[in-house]
Amino acid sequence: MNKNQISRERSKTQITDAAFRMFIERGYHATSLDAIAQEANLTKGSVYFYFGSKEKLALHLFNIIHDEIVCPQVEAIEQTRGSFVDKVVAYIHVGSNAGVHRPHKLLFMIQMSIEFGFQDTPLAEGIRKLYSGLYASIEAAYEQGLRDGTTSFKATPQAVSSMVVAVHDGMMLQYNLRQGEIDGPELVKNVRKMVLSGLNG
Amino acid sequence: MNKNQISRERSKTQITDAAFRMFIERGYHATSLDAIAQEANLTKGSVYFYFGSKEKLALHLFNIIHDEIVCPQVEAIEQTRGSFVDKVVAYIHVGSNAGVHRPHKLLFMIQMSIEFGFQDTPLAEGIRKLYSGLYASIEAAYEQGLRDGTTSFKATPQAVSSMVVAVHDGMMLQYNLRQGEIDGPELVKNVRKMVLSGLNG
Amino acid sequence: MNKNQISRERSKTQITDAAFRMFIERGYHATSLDAIAQEANLTKGSVYFYFGSKEKLALHLFNIIHDEIVCPQVEAIEQTRGSFVDKVVAYIHVGSNAGVHRPHKLLFMIQMSIEFGFQDTPLAEGIRKLYSGLYASIEAAYEQGLRDGTTSFKATPQAVSSMVVAVHDGMMLQYNLRQGEIDGPELVKNVRKMVLSGLNG
Amino acid sequence: MNKNQISRERSKTQITDAAFRMFIERGYHATSLDAIAQEANLTKGSVYFYFGSKEKLALHLFNIIHDEIVCPQVEAIEQTRGSFVDKVVAYIHVGSNAGVHRPHKLLFMIQMSIEFGFQDTPLAEGIRKLYSGLYASIEAAYEQGLRDGTTSFKATPQAVSSMVVAVHDGMMLQYNLRQGEIDGPELVKNVRKMVLSGLNG
DNA sequence: AATGAATGAGTGTTCATTCAT
DNA sequence: TATGAATGAACACTCATTCAT
Fold first, then answer.
1. Distances (CA, A) of D31 to D34, D36, D54, D177
2. C119 Cβ partners below 8 Å, 6+ apart?
3. Domain C54-200 belongs to what topology?
4. Looking at the complex, does the CB of residue C139 fall below 8 Å from at least one CB of chain D?
5. Which residues on C lie below 8 Å from D186 (Cβ)?
6. CATH topology of domain B1-52
7. Residue C151: its chain D contacts at CB < 8 A?
8. pLDDT digits over B123-172, tens only?
9. What is the pTM of this model?
């Protein structure tokens, strides 16, 4: 990688980092490219040079999230040995880890799923595709659990995956809405406890 | 009520209904007053005549939510006799009822909590006030459960209330994001089952 | 005059008084009919009922000014016996009296002459007509003074009338711009002194 | 100065020139930024690019006036050797020169002093600051004249400065209101004559 | 005599986007 | 690689005006 490529990468990273921060703080629509560019110590022109449009920038963030957040979560589910609940707990842990170390990225995903959830745009499609990977993986794990008898919870796979994601995303949102008020690790611990005996019971 | 008052009420209702619908579909920032006015079969001018500003219109929606959604939820928690879990289940049922009959209002509340959660504006304050009423009521119920021995779940009250709200809001979001894919009542039933044994266990 | 007529007159006076006050404070364009109506303890509708439009309301104010300000000034010039300077001093005294007792009306006239001076609208025409009566009367007095030898100041009548009005209006503006800072009567006294020896010299 | 800077300067000048013209013709409130932009052969967006807001544009015009009009006037007063009346005459000459060569700028200053005089906004503050520099300089000259005996006119310094500015501004307004009707240089000559013997007398 | 609901054109302002350099 | 000038469409908001009552 030559000097040019390095500087390119640095600039792109500056922009995506700034974009994550601003989008979460203010939401997609309320964030101007000017604000992102300023936060990245560059100009609007650069953002266009690298990403072409605001929408494409957001789609690029979706890709990052896919690689850094969703993939590890799916892997956690698929590679954890044990019962379905074990896999769910692993998923929640990976998520809450990301929520602690890269909170902006995880939050951005959840936030976008709400800001665009009911629409019919490329961005809405993009966010739904992220989620459907998660659903599929949870549902597969649940069905596997049913087959090998490690799960006795009776429900449709869709209801189960929705429930798991609901708990996970709801927890992340609460943690961030009440920042300062509540203790993150404690929240995770209790949610795990509830899910554990809840899904086992 | 004379003719004038009737037309007044009708216009205001048209506007608030339209606003709820549009704000949920597109979010607060992405919804123009023109769009709301058109949806309400009126003009922008009328919206200003009745509400004065976009922000005040949204705050008015918060008041409606307070009366129609949050108050019934708080009442359900406070007036249900029995254990803490019984109260939580009552809360979830009221919420899911509202989610079925007035889905836009409940969703609007959740959506706004995310679009404004981290900001410092009158709207952000308004939405946080709605939530803090809920938190307080759940925390009181939990502490009462501890005192009278109907609850053995050990956690800080804040973590408990966050968890409950997380499950509730997360469920509502999932239900709406996967509309058509999943069965609402079944989702509620399963969440109740999980919470029931999860918090009792 | 029956009860109805009395109430009509009172309402019209409330509106014109309010209009004078608001127009001076904020200027014609920056004053809304709503603001005037509120100041008059009536509604916009009433203003339209009585005056038909914002422009017509302003033209009505011009008529009031004609009767209460300009006519007395012209009379003072025409009925004062003595030299041209005596007449000018009489004019200035009537003006400064009006400036003390009905300051808003005189100021409104000056202000409008500037806000509309260079335009070609009914309002601009109206204000110019007010002034041209004044000019004519001063010029006649000056020419009379030249004929009967009571004036030795040599200039075109237009220059003289402009000068007199310039001093008068300029003085009124300064008095109002520096309200509190300067003493009105003293300003008038000094201006009279300057004009007296200046035009006689 | 590179090409960019040149185009920048040209655009800014086009805008400020257009703004001066339009503001005088129609007043501040009655002039839309669209009109200014069109007159400057640019778009509203450009005006915002360079000045940020209508108010800031006007404040920029105030700065120009400070440099091109008020400073020369103050300098004329301070650097003229001789009696107080000599200094006043110098001030009037500088002003009437500006009134001939840059009539729009001087008029703009006077006009704004009336449109905003009684208000409490940044623009009102700005215009008052322009005037207070003038007042101070005239008052200092008058007091110096009293001390060195070159002036025998007895009045408060404030009344004197008000009078001088009144005559100056009133003259400028009259000249412009009666454009075509009266002869500028003759007006100035006569005013000078009046002031000369008036203040000396 | 007076109100208040409703409108529509217009205003200041923002912002994604383009493009020459 | 990156900038900054410029645009145009959209936005929240204002306001003179109309009209049924």
1. 8, 7, 10, 19
2. D25, D26
3. Tetracycline Repressor; domain 2 (1.10.357)
4. no
5. 155-156, 159
6. Arc Repressor Mutant, subunit A (1.10.10)
7. none
8. 999 999 999 999 999 999 999 999 999 888 889 999 999 999 999 999 98
9. 0.92
